[in-house]
Design goal:
mainly alpha; 4-stranded antiparallel β-sheet; 24 helices; 4 strands; 71% helix
Length: 536
């Protein structure tokens, strides 16, 4: 029983092992079900894992009532099954309920508590809720250090989790020592060539790279790549990740000739492993297109960008400078470059709004059976496609001998079929319910569409703020133009902060009757404004 529990805990941010720790005979069934859930998830059968997790919870509640260790473990497992399907809204309350039961049954510092804390914190981190995630990761680490000791792999996992949170917050000085501690633990516990060691070397390499310590970063990333190629195989997605990171290091050093073949190899691996439309493949395509622009080969970058723009996966930091360069070199007409740039900006701004609308889709469709039917079918197909995509990612993470190419190909074919079916559904929604379709899936406006909305005395100005430079777009009814601005997000934020400080005058120093200034806290990213000429 204990060994089974240990195996489950070593999955990291996967399933809590508390059900496997319990000694009564009733716990044996929960442990067996937990192991089956783990195997289903390893096989990428996330929908089947969800069904089994739901049944396990129902059985545990029937046998023990609402407050029991087995119930808490089953709640955690069900939460993780939902999280695997991207359904965080369903996962969060399950994690919270599991946590409350573990604390009540075993105490606040029980070893059972740590895995659920990690799972809940990981959920918050995915949602960029770092203020909520950090204290949970910290508490999970404290419990692991106390319950299993400072050198246990569980503690190493918690160190890595907290360090990753710090790194996402840009707190490199806090993340680095934790990554180094975790690396030392796993090198001793799992051996110097384990996949976990490769991951931690990669993480440390990223920290040293972004802090400008390139000579220190290169051997770490290179060693991570070597381990992954040896242990996982040359075509593994993790190998593509290491290749991408090494290429990025070379790019930062302007070693473009060294970076290009690595970016190309990473892109090739991802296209074969997860398909041409996967987000990781899009990341590699963006990276290669950006490098080609830096090499003054924007003409070679344009076909890559065209594919990204059509699918809505072009990154503004890559697409805007490349499109502007292409326009300046007369490789693209000014109107074409502008429309493509506007498409990139609008699609980036629409993603969060569309996501919020889709979450409310069934509620918006209430009272109309036909609309509700179409919306639910589209959502079901979306969930199926996401599950199949996860199954492919899980499959390609296995050793070559354990792969099932035929099953992987069937999953890819089904994803393609789902895309076609969803396209038909969107066409039906657009035809039968145009208002709903426009709200849930708005199409980018071309420049001529924007101009048609403007009055004769109006102009629209749009700012797109990127990391190192920004762009300003101006359109009236008759003409348009766009230009780069040599100031990025960080520098602009500093100027805005200084401007605000200048306006932060003591109230008593202001003349009587003068209102205090109020400066908006809205982010200045892709912000349009409409200017009207004053009539005189």
């Amino acid at each position: 029983m204990k060994s089974s529990g240990k195996a489950a805990r070593l999955l990291g941010l996967a399933l809590a092992a508390s059900a496997c720790i319990a000694m009564p005979a009733s716990a044996q069934n929960v442990a067996a079900q937990t192991n089956k859930i783990i195997e289903l998830e390893r096989a990428g059968k996330f929908a089947d894992a969800l069904t089994l997790a739901q049944k396990t919870l129902a059985d545990a509640e029937k046998a023990h009532g609402p407050v029991h260790r087995d119930v808490a473990a089953s709640l955690n497992n069900l939460g993780h099954a939902y999280a695997n399907l991207g359904q965080d809204a369903e996962a969060e309350p399950l994690y919270k309920r599991a946590l409350a039961i573990f604390e009540k049954v075993g105490g606040l510092d029980s070893a059972d508590v740590s895995p659920t804390l990690n799972n809940l914190a990981a959920l918050y981190q995915r949602q960029d809720r770092f203020a909520d995630a950090e204290p949970l990761f910290r508490r999970a680490l404290m419990i692991s250090e106390k319950s299993v000791g400072p050198s246990h792999p569980d503690t190493g996992r918690s160190l890595n989790n907290l360090a990753t949170c710090y790194e996402k917050l840009g707190r490199h000085g806090d993340s680095e020592p934790l990554f180094r501690r975790a690396l030392a633990i796993y090198e001793k516990a799992a051996g110097p060539e384990s996949p976990a060691v490769a991951t931690l070397l990669n993480n440390l390499g990223q920290v040293t790279k972004v802090t400008g310590r390139y000579a220190e970063a290169e051997p770490m990333i290179r060693r991570s790549l070597a381990i992954r190629e040896k242990v996982l195989g040359a075509e593994h997605p993790d190998v593509a990740r290491s290749l991408n990171n090494m290429a990025d290091l070379y790019e930062r050093q302007t070693r473009y000739a060294d970076a290009e073949p690595l970016y190309r190899r990473a892109l090739s691996i991802r296209e074969r492993a997860v398909g041409p439309d996967h987000p990781e493949t899009a990341t590699s395509t963006n990276n290669l297109a950006n490098l080609l622009r830096l090499e003054d080969r924007v003409n070679d970058a344009l076909p890559l960008l065209a594919r990204l723009i059509v699918t809505g996966r072009a990154q503004a930091r890559v697409a805007l400078p490349a499109l502007y360069d292409a326009q300046q070199k007369q490789l693209l007409a000014q109107g074409t470059a502008l429309d493509d740039a506007l498409s990139v900006i609008q699609r980036g701004a629409q993603s969060s709004a569309a996501s919020a609308v889709n979450k409310l889709a069934v509620r918006l469709a209430a009272g109309n059976d036909r609309l509700a039917e179409l919306v639910r079918r589209d959502q079901d197909l979306g969930s199926e496609a996401e599950s199949l995509d996860k199954s492919i990612m899980s499959a390609v993470s296995k050793e070559r001998a354990k792969r099932d190419p035929a099953a992987e190909q069937r999953a890819r074919e089904r994803i393609s079929a789902i895309a076609g079916e969803r396209a038909k559904l969107q066409k039906a929604l657009s035809s039968e319910f145009p208002d709903y379709s426009a709200l849930s899936n708005p199409l980018p406006l071309a420049s001529k569409d924007v101009q048609a909305l403007l009055s004769a005395d109006e102009a629209m100005v749009l700012f797109a703020v990127a990391e190192k430079e920004s762009y300003v777009f101006a359109l009236n009814r008759d003409t348009f133009d766009w230009k780069p601005i040599p100031i990025g997000a960080d520098a602009l934020s500093g100027k805005i902060a200084a401007f605000r400080r200048g306006l932060d005058m003591p109230r008593q120093a202001m003349p009587p009757g003068r209102p205090a200034c109020s400066i908006s806290d809205s982010p200045m990213i892709s912000t349009p404004c409409c200017w009207r000429r004053s009539s005189r």
